[in-house]
């Protein structure tokens, strides 16, 4: 039980990677605040994960006061807060022609500013527990795909914040901050997105080796397994680190010109 009695907030945890992290944390003995945008998905996730050690909060992560309400819910329910997983994100396509000021600000608000505000709200309690922040980024933070401009910018900002706070907060508050950058993951939403792009029902079984040398893309449970290490005490004093979870090197790979028809990392 690597997370026994630890209280953890996982944003965006009604589906996909977030739900997988919540499930893994519960299996390791944690108590988890489940968070999402849709009430129906939240209820389904809570039923699946079990109600004994979970509590659900449904709200737009960018709503004024949402960060405080999430933190207060955890502390009111279980008396403390040991970890925050910033997983909620808006995955949306855009390029230089379709990205204007208003759109970019909205993407940054969800993917970069909301995680920052949650860290600020959680910090007093994490300082008491000598806790940890785990940000879920994306390999697109390094430069990103042509059709994921705004999203890539926002994940780049999140990665810089992780390194900055990961350096400062251990010294000032005793709180570690690290980040996982998933590659291409087979989430429920990714399956839907690709079918909307015109691909077959089983598109994930026909991915070229260029994108999946192993013959498949990543599963949410594999990202969750890595997350447990960073949330557990076994990661010791390590802070300010960003770990890419992909099955091939990111630098020096040249994708085919028609890569946008199949590729779509989170």
Automatic annotation (TrEMBL):
Coiled coil: none
InterPro entries, sorted: NAD(P)-bd_dom_sf (IPR036291), Sc_DH/Rdtase_CS (IPR020904), SDR_fam (IPR002347)
Family the entry assigns: Belongs to the short-chain dehydrogenases/reductases (SDR) family.
Protein name: NAD(P)-dependent dehydrogenase (Short-subunit alcohol dehydrogenase family)
Organism: Cecembia calidifontis
């Amino acid at each position: 039980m690597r997370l026994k009695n630890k209280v953890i907030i996982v944003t965006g945890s009604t589906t996909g990677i977030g739900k997988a992290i919540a499930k893994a944390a519960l299996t390791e003995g944690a108590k988890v605040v489940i968070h999402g945008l849709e009430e129906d998905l939240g209820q389904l996730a809570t039923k699946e994960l079990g109600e004994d050690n979970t509590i659900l909060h449904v709200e737009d992560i960018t709503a004024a006061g949402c960060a405080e309400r999430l933190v207060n819910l955890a502390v009111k329910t279980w008396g403390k807060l040991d970890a925050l997983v910033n997983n909620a994100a808006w995955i949306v396509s855009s390029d230089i022609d379709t990205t204007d000021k208003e759109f970019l600000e909205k993407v940054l608000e969800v993917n970069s500013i909301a995680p920052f505000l949650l860290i600020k709200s959680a910090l007093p309690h994490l300082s008491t527990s000598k806790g940890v922040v785990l940000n879920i980024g994306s390999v697109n933070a390094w430069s990103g795909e042509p059709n994921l401009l705004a999203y890539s910018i926002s994940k780049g900002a999140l990665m810089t914040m992780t390194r900055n706070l990961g350096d400062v907060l251990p010294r000032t508050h005793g709180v570690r901050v690290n980040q996982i950058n998933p590659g291409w993951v087979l989430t429920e939403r990714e399956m839907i997105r690709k079918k909307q792009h015109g691909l077959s029902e089983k598109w994930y079984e026909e991915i070229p080796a260029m994108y999946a040398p192993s013959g498949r893309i990543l599963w949410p449970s594999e990202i969750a397994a890595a997350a447990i290490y960073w949330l557990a005490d076994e990661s010791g004093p390590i802070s300010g680190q960003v770990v890419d979870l992909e099955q091939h090197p990111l630098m020096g790979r040249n994708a085919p010109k028609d890569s946008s028809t199949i590729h779509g990392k989170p």
